[in-house]
Amino acid sequence: MSRFPTYRPRRLRRREALRRLVRETHVSATQLVQPLFVVPGTNVETPVASMPGVAQMSVDRIAEECQRLVDAGVGSVLLFGIPDTKDATGSGAVAPDGIIPRALAAIRRAAGDLVVITDVCLCEYTDHGHCGLLREGEVDNDPTLEVLAAEALAHARAGADIVAPSDMMDGRVGAIRRALDAAGFEHVPILAYAAKFASGFYGPFRDAAESTPAFGDRRGYQMDPANVEEALREVALDIDEGADMVMVKPALPYLDVIRRVKERFGYPLAAYQVSGEYAMIKAAAANGWIDEARAVEETLTAIRRAGADVIITYFAHDVARGLGRP
Ligand code: PBG
């Protein structure tokens, strides 16, 4: 390929209008999902210190925020609930009048058309902060499945559009699918956190969701960052068990995983630009070390270019509003 001077790639780069014409990858607000943290009470808006611009909000505030997101053109929200009280079995997760069912009711009234995804996990609801039930200090897989299925069912009954298990227990997609089908919710899709890595980039989220494990870490159930073949097996399992969409998480450090999952399975694929990815950009921008709008656009474009259809990102609202550009 030494066709210079016949071929000059710069010819199509001379103006933004030309660059736009031949651009291969696009990021649109309709493909973005804004995560939201719902807390008990009314009129509560508590900023998350490690995530500037993100706040925990009570149900009433969440409903207003959802209305604004719809107006801005954001496609969807992902709800994380922080319950009134936590206990060893995470009973707040399955309560029909729990924090997520209450939020769903309010969002439906305020922003009917929004696609509402709910996080299905126990770490926000357990007093020990692990994603499942404990036995002798270890997360016990199979008994946890029943609770996760009950949680997903409570969300579906309250009107969730999509349920998204993030716990990484083996067999949970199948357990949730069976529970939903048996109760007449065969139309509710599952977005499986299929390849979720035990990442150092979740720290700020654990402040926001108040879900830091009281002891140990999550390496016993989340994936080893070194493994991509295993990620493909995880995705295959979840699809086999009935996942409608699959996820790779985090996003930017795992672009190769995103690409391979997309190529291998061709399934609707979500990537989660997690709290630590958000915090890094925010912190560097606050110091004047990088241009926030450019860094956000570039990272989201890279994640889409790698093969993600949908991106879950704390920047969704900002992107929809044009990243503060006139
Ligand atoms: C837990 C859950 C986590 C995130 C989403 N769901 C944290 C964890 O596994 O500890 C992280 C999201 C983020 O960092 O933005 N069920």
Descriptive report:
The mean pLDDT is 96. The protein has one domain (27-320): TIM Barrel, CATH 3.20.20. Helix 7 packs across helix 8 (255-265). Strand 10, helix 8 and strand 11 (269-273) form a beta-alpha-beta unit. It is built from 11 helices and 12 strands. Helix content is 37%, strand content 17%. The longest helix has 17 residues, at 141-157. It starts with 15 loop residues before the first helix and ends in a 6-residue tail after the last helix. The chain has 326 residues and is of the alpha/beta class. Bound molecules: ligand PBG.
According to CATH, the homologous superfamily is: Aldolase class I
Please, how many helices? 11
Number of spatially distinct domains: 1
Low-confidence stretches: none
Q: What is the end-to-end distance?
A: 41 Å
What structural class should be given to the helix and strand makeup? Answer: alpha/beta
Helix content: 25-40%
Largest sheet: 10 strands, mixed
What is the mean predicted local confidence, pLDDT?
A: 96
| Beta-strand percent range | 15-25%
Oligomer: single chain
CATH class: Alpha Beta
Query: From the coordinates shown, what is the CATH architecture?
Result: Alpha-Beta Barrel
* Strand segment count: 12
- Name the overall outline: globular
CATH topology: TIM Barrel
Instruction: Write down the secondary-structure element order.
Output: HEEEHEHEEEHEHEHHEHEHHEH
